[in-house]
Amino acid sequence: MDWRSVLNFPGANRAAVAGVAAAVVALGALAIALGSSSSSGAASAGPVAVGEAQRASLTVELPAVANDRIYGSQTAQGRPIVVIDAGHGGRDPGARSVSGEVMEKDLTLALARELRDKLVQRGRVRVALTRDGDSYLTLDDRAAVARRLDAAMFISLHMDSAPNPLARGASVYSLSDVASDAEAAHLAVEQNDGAGQSEGNGSVDSMLSELAMRGQMSASANLASRLVKKAAGRFELRPEPHRFAAFHVLRRAGTPAVLFEAGYLSNADDELLLRNTQHRSDIALALAQAIEADVAAHARR
Ligand SMILES: [Zn+2]
């Protein structure tokens, strides 16, 4: 059960009575205030039984949400859908590079589009993006795309930043209740900021059984280790590149999900690499191969 069904309660279309209408508007505002995806999900997911007044008030307040466009070649018809999530966006720029010239949100979008194009061209999976422009999305908005499309996996793309200017290299995080190290725990807290954690986790925990969540975690860990294997020797990885933390966006995706940190924008060498289209193409190819290997392994089971 999610906020979509909450908003879609029976009788809402008879809400001509002002008091009820006000309550529905307040519920919409509450959902937005909680950072829930719900209202956006409701607005884009087809008929929502609310009156015109409420519809207008909901629509105005909503963040821009991708229209769940699915990209794929002719040969990929019916193939699994991979959701690629370009981290940050809109009023959330993410990390600023050490030169001050680029922002994380722009480079994650560039990498997301390049990975989409690579996957579509190779024809083994279909692809959706959580955003294909400079728009702001909550973590729940992002995870909801994967759930709406019944995606086979969810890959969130980010770039690191650290006080130590020498820190560099890529890493992959998969979901866990317990963080692998203090830095991973800190990163998850930063990423989860504003995610309406208590409400969100409550509804997810009731929606998915503990067993299903364990399965999701172990499939996510498998995907992360495939990514590390494909990346090894092709671009620089951090020591112990596969890490674990309790990321809200990964938990809510409802499918195997990883967060890929492509390198450090706080490191001058990594910044140059991440701004280089050939380097990003190398990263996209390794990610695409790992994604395809993972999809193939699941198809054989
Ligand atoms: Zn980030």
What is the topology?
Layout (H helix, E strand, L loop, with lengths): L2 H5 L10 H16 L4 H7 L7 H10 L19 E6 L17 H19 L3 E4 L9 H10 L4 E8 L9 E6 L6 H11 L4 H11 L2 H22 L5 E9 L2 H5 L4 E8 L3 H7 L2 H24 L1
Parallel strand pairs: 1-2, 1-3, 3-6, 4-5
Antiparallel strand pairs: 4-6
Helix pairs in contact: 2-4, 5-12, 9-12
The chain binds zinc ion.
The site of zinc ion has 5 residues, from loops.
Short characterization:
With 301 residues, this protein is an alpha/beta fold. Helix content is 49%, strand content 14%. Strand 1 (81-86), helix 5 and strand 2 form a beta-alpha-beta unit.
Commentary on this structure:
By secondary structure, the protein is α/β, with parallel strands linked by helices. Helices cover 49% and strands 14% of the residues. It has 12 helices and 6 strands. It has helices at residues 3-7, 18-33, 38-44, 52-61, 104-122, 139-148, 182-192, 197-207, 210-231, 248-252, 268-274, 277-300, and strands spanning 81-86, 126-129, 153-160, 170-175, 237-245, 257-264. A 6-stranded mixed β-sheet has the order 2-1-3-6-4-5, with helices on both faces. The longest helix has 24 residues, at 277-300. The protein starts with a helix and ends with a helix. Bound molecules: zinc ion (ZN).
**Low-confidence segments, ≥5 residues, pLDDT <50?**
1-63
Structural class: alpha/beta
Ligand identities: zinc ion
- Sheet with the most strands, sense and barrel status: 6 strands, mixed
Radius of gyration: 20 Å
Strand order of the largest sheet: 2-1-3-6-4-5
Distance between the termini: 29 Å
How confident is the prediction overall: mean pLDDT? 80
Q: Quick one: overall form? A: globular
- Which percent range describes the beta-strand content? 5-15%
How helical, in percent, are the residues?
40-55%
> DSSP helix count?
12
Listing every helix as H and every strand as E from the N terminus to the C terminus, the arrangement reads HHHHEHEHEEHHHEHEHH
Q: Tally of extended strands?
A: 6
